[in-house]
Amino acid sequence: MNEKVPVGWLKINVTDLVNVGRGYAFKNSDYCTAGNPIVRVTNISKANSLDLSNKVVYLANDRATEFQSYQLRDDDFLLVMVGATIGKYAKVITKGKSLFLNQNMWRLSVINEQTNSQKFAIYGLQKVIEEFLRTMQGSARDFLTQKEFGKTSISLPPLLEQKKIASILTSVDNVIETTQRQINKLQDLKKANMNQLLTKGIGHTEFKDSELGQIPKSWDVRTIGDIVNSKRPVTYGIVQAGEHVPDGIPYIRVSDMKSDSLHPAKMMRTSPVIAKKFTRSRVLEGDIVYALRGDVGKVLVVPRILEGANLTQGTALISKSDSIETSFLYWCFDSSATRKQTYNMAKGSTFVEMTLGNLKNIKIPVPACLEQSAIAKILDSIEGTISLKVEKFHKTQSLKKSLMQDLLTGKVRVKVN
């Protein structure tokens, strides 16, 4: 309570700002398949948002008045206070529905909306919760007590400044939410196009039955082992992860097979002497790296910047070939038909792994090269648009984080007319 705050601001205990309301311990017998959604811990997403798209149970309409005191309002702030997801939070958006709060969560709402803004409290409480949880790191706690939470404090500007800060952060949140919806729609579009293009192709009217289902009459079905460059057959990654050598040859691990890791400066390296022993698993631009362990079936098209890198154990090299477009093959690996084959072929109960023999036997549909290119171009275009939206999403999230740090501490003051 003795910490300095900007001139005109107050620092008060959280429980002097908000009421802490608990949810009701609904029983399984209270649940039904239609009616009013009951918000449970499982409906608070990892991204700290309210998700009522799945795992939803309902309270019958004729019982709504019975639990009226547990009905949620727009801008209520929920905090998970028990269990594995302790500390997760979400703002309530009812969208005109009657939502009811289940147990194991608190509902935080300002005591007096005439003197304090609930919309500001939503952001101020996020900062308080994150700081509070950091003080609990390393402890074996699996619940929060109202007494402990009540000892935390929050910095409060005057009401007009609260509203201005909330307006700025809400506008950023709106951009984040809009961008996420756009990403979701593009993902659905990509899935629909993949299903159509990788089974029906472009402009075909005649089809035939195959091991993969109906495909255009002019297409073939071939195995991975058949389509690769015969001079560079499918092979295991064989470099063993060892001591990092700063100026050595980078090697690709399954954990590197994501866009934010695909740069030599971020990767482990082995000495050139050791790398020379494993030229068989050295990659060229356009080769495909396949995860045999861990995230089995994940694939990476080798970018130019990683040409000459080696593959570590747990991966396989599928070399580029004149008979198959690399980008088309990439999309085939991501298709539902190939994923089903991967699921059926991968071995192990606690440690799942794909063998090289099974990888070679995966079957894919093969149209003529020109059609491969056309299909890949359509899917690459959608994926490129998704990547731009994802980049915008992350940048806006970073902007929000920095704005919260500046505005909620008073480091940057807003002008109020």
Structure notes:
There is one protein chain. The chain is of the alpha+beta class and 417 residues long. The protein is 34% helix and 17% strand. It has 10 helices and 21 strands. It has helices spanning 14-17, 118-136, 146-150, 159-200, 224-227, 272-276, 326-333, 336-345, 356-360, 369-407; strands at 10-13, 18-22, 31-32, 36-39, 57-59, 77-80, 89-91, 100-101, 105-110, 153-156, 207-208, 215-216, 220-223, 235-236, 249-252, 269-270, 288-291, 299-301, 310-311, 315-318, 363-366. The strands form 7 sheets. Strands 2-9-6-7 form a 4-stranded antiparallel β-sheet. Helix 4 runs antiparallel to helix 10. The longest helix is centred in the middle third of the chain and has 42 residues, at 159-200. 29% of the residues are buried.
